[in-house]
Amino acid sequence: MTDLPLLTVSVSPHLKSGQSVEKIMWTVVACLLPPLILSVFIFGLQTLIITLISVISCVAVEAISQKLLHRPVTIKDGSAVITGLLMAYIIPPGVPYWIPVLGAVMAIYVAKHLLGGIGFNIFNPALIGRAFLMASFPVAMTSAWLPPIRDGAIFKYMGSGIDAVSTATPLYLLKHYGSSALMEKFGSMSAIYGDFFIGWRPGCIGETSALLLLIGGLYLIYKKYITWHIPVAMIATVGFLTWVFGGERFFTGNPLLAVLSGGVFLGAFFMATDYVTSPSQGTAKLIFGAGVGALTVLIRLKGGYPEGVCYAILLMNPTVPALEGWFRPRRFAPQKGAQ
Amino acid sequence: MAKTAVQEFTKGLWAEIPPFRLVLGLCPILAVTKTVENGIGMGIATTFVLICSNILISLLRNVIPKKVRIACFIVVIATFVTVVELIMQAFAYPLFLKLGIFIPLIVVNCIVLGRAEAFAAKNGVVASLADGLGIGLGYTLSLTALAIVREVLGNGTFYDIPVFGPTFEPFSFMVQAPGAFVCLGLMLCIMNMLGKK
């Protein structure tokens, strides 16, 4: 026992919070599970299969990439699981099962590991996966929307011809036919708000339930894994800009509908807040979130796609180093040259 | 110059194959490799310009004043590009229409100017001919290789012949511009891996 040194010399930090990448990642996974369970009841059991395929392929691609690149295999840290979950959450519920496999290769191998692995990717891998799938298979990715199931028949869409039942998303209807077409399809505005808030609407697998995403996001904020800046700035900007520019005249848009449709909640709480691809300081976070919101509204109102959250976040990702540089935190030490 | 003409020729096929080793001439390789036919056509047109301009510049290398050499090279290259353009209009009009602006743009292809400046202006006619032929064929090979990957995956065809049957879902990412970048990057990566051993 006398060989043990009495004092250990180590570099800072000396106080540790007990957090680790694994702990944070698996908590995020847990927060993401409720929308998945709900989606089984909204769109049927095949959403679970698509999500499982996506997660398993992401983990497998992560392990293979790390072997190939002679890096330590870190599939246990859960980051590939999150990428797989998020990628499945932003693809339509009626896609063929091979689609998430190809997306996983692009997301994990090209967008994450070729750029240096976890902590070095410029873009959010799950969003790159979706953007790649959108560019590759525009027909499969834009015609596989399913109408929500009302009667609990969760096997309804399994293996049947998806084309026969595909529908239009609320944002597509709004963009091309206006809000009267939306009300015709989904009922009165108050019924729409209720259904959309809980998640009973056509959309991507995991993006529909604003309520469950909000609960998961608030838990992450409560645990201090993410801060309020980006989600609040993003959702507020989407609502405000839609209110100003979304209607036929200025200040007649419908901010509540804009915020509840598409992937705003999923993007705001779980994608724009990704540690690696978002700023780390308050002011920069607010500007980042507002930028994502503004680009989302711009794409929705003026762009070619009905929804723009995915591309808005991808476009803001490369601005992060500049934002971090412009909005440095004040230093505690006296300014240079001060006495 | 101890190297023989054969060595000058073969270096263009592997050791200095553009654009995988010399990362030059990226604009056409990204733009025209949607189909194998375009890739081969562009490669042959570039090879012709390379050989002819290399020979002529090598012949004129003692006459061209050093200070205005780039302008002189460009004039020589532009002459042969015009020749290619007219020949293609006469004998391969559909291909000419497909390649469009990229035929005139061979003038500013860095490989052609690069070989003129770095090789033909300093070496004899035979060596320059071999160099132009080697680099040109290497460029054609690269264009064809990239075009094969992109056409087979992106369109499900090879030289307009379907290869996967009717159930194949085309991978349209590959025939778009980002697909060209990603595909070229992955091929560069494979070349570097092979080159290490």
Structural topology:
The complex is a heterodimer of chains A (339) and B (197).
Chain A: H1 21-43, H2 46-68, H3 79-89, H4 99-113, H5 125-136, H6 138-142, H7 170-177, H8 179-186, H9 189-198, H10 210-222, H11 229-245, H12 255-260, H13 264-271, H14 282-302, H15 309-316, H16 320-326
Helix pairs in contact in A: 1-2, 1-3, 1-10, 2-3, 2-4, 3-4, 3-5, 4-5, 5-15, 7-8, 10-13, 11-13, 11-14, 14-15, 14-16
Chain B: H1 5-11, H2 26-31, H3 36-59, H4 69-91, H5 93-99, H6 110-120, H7 125-155, E1 157-158, E2 161-162, H8 177-196
Antiparallel strand pairs in B: 1-2
Helix pairs in contact in B: 1-7, 3-4, 3-6, 3-7, 4-5, 4-6, 6-7
Give structural attributes.
heterodimer; A: 339 residues; mainly alpha; 2 domains; 16 helices; B: 197 residues; 8 helices; 65% helix; globular
Structure explained in plain terms:
The complex is a heterodimer of chains A (339) and B (197). Chain A is built from 16 helices and no strands. In chain A, helix 2 packs parallel to helix 4. Chain A has two domains: 21-142, no CATH class; 168-201 and 209-326, no CATH class. Helices cover 58% and strands 0% of the residues of chain A. Chain A starts with 20 loop residues before the first helix and ends in a 13-residue tail after the last helix. Chain B has a domain at 20-139. Chain B contains eight helices and two strands; from the N terminus they run αααααααββα. In chain B, helix 3 (36-59) crosses helix 4 (69-91), helix 3 (36-59) runs antiparallel to helix 7 and helix 4 crosses helix 6. The relative contact order of chain B is 0.19. The chains are: A mainly alpha (339), B mainly alpha (197). The interface between A and B is small, with 9 and 11 residues.
